[in-house]
Specification:
Elements lengths: L6 E5 L5 H10 L4 E5 L7 H14 L2 E6 L10 H7 L5 H20 L4 E4 L13 H16 L4 E5 L5 H11 L4 E5 L1 H6 L5 H8 L3 E6 L1 E3 L9 E3 L8 H10 L6 E3 L5 H24 L1
Parallel strand pairs: 1-2, 1-10, 2-3, 3-4, 4-5, 5-6, 6-7, 7-10
Antiparallel strand pairs: 8-9
Helix pairs in contact: 1-2, 4-5, 5-6, 6-8, 9-10
The structure holds magnesium ion.
Length: 279
């Protein structure tokens, strides 16, 4: 287990598990959330991941699900394509989630996370009960592995997500709190939302962004500290509520600029955490 408030980054394995984890270790980052790396799901791939973790000491805290056919192009497309919401692909995606959880189990990871899609705010909506049933089913399955299932925030209000979690009514459902998503989707304010969701938060994404400027469009992701989240206040509040889990940086660009932005984010978070813990 990583130390309290260990820094992390969300990544796949674009090169090779040992190269990718070594690169992250060189940045001074001791944990990762792993986007499910389908190419490494074979027995040989799993062994390569276990070897890379042993070599580098970088801990994988979470395996994040993704599904074929998802698109984040704009808000209506997200509503139609992401997670367990589309009825036509729901069964197949639940089966895929189960497969990803089995992979996570083999690499010793007890936390599986996903965007489950737009949960309707209206309980009477025809999709609502189906979503409750789907998440309850997958949580039951994960529980047999001793795993938790964590819901990425952003595609609904915090109050709506809390009601949904209460309706699913299982003890291994959690929240991966991404403050930028609430803003990018124009759905809620991430600082007061911490109060609403605090009992379930077991992971976070340090990501920033600006509010949407046109209906139906997403806002714009920015380097950490340059968007509308107010990262200093959000971090102070997160810690004041007792959160001590990993602090996972998410920067959804690629290449050298991503590395530079992650290193800047790391310095910013280290300063904010030191300040918050002094209080
Ligand atoms: Mg995120």
């Amino acid at each position: 287990m990583s130390a309290e408030l260990a820094l992390g980054v969300i990544t796949g394995f674009p090169m090779h598990p040992s190269k990718d984890l070594a690169r992250i270790k060189d940045m001074g980052i001791p944990t990762v959330q792993l986007q499910y790396p389908a190419a490494w799901g074979t027995p040989e791939g799993i062994q390569a991941i276990l070897d890379a973790v042993a070599e580098t000491g970088v801990e994988i805290t979470t395996v994040f699900c993704g599904f074929a056919g998802e698109s984040y192009a704009d808000i209506p497309t997200v509503q139609e394509t992401v997670g367990f919401v589309p009825v036509a692909t729901r069964e197949a995606r639940l089966a895929k989630t189960r497969e990803i959880a089995a992979f996570a189990e083999k690499i010793g990871v007890k936390r599986v996370a996903a965007h489950i899609g737009y949960v309707p705010e209206d309980h009477g909506h025809p999709l609502y009960q189906g979503m409750v049933d789907a998440v309850r089913w997958i949580c039951g399955d994960l529980k047999q592995n001793g795993q938790v299932f964590s819901l990425e925030t952003g595609q609904e209000t915090a109050a709506g997500l809390r009601r949904f979690i209460e309706d699913v009514a299982v003890d291994n459902l959690r929240v991966n709190f991404d403050p930028a998503n609430m803003i990018l989707y124009g759905n809620d304010r991430p600082i007061p939302a911490l109060d609403v969701l605090a009992p379930w938060i077991d992971g976070v994404h340090f990501k920033d962004g600006t509010w949407p400027t046109e209906p139906g469009q997403l806002g714009t992701e920015t380097p950490l500290g340059e968007g509308d989240v107010n990262i200093p206040e959000w971090t102070a509040k997160l810690l004041s509520l007792g959160y001590r889990g990993p602090l996972t940086i998410e920067r959804e660009i690629h290449g050298d600029q991503q590395r530079l932005d992650i290193l800047k984010a790391k310095a910013l978070i280290e300063g904010l955490v030191a300040e918050a813990l002094l209080k």
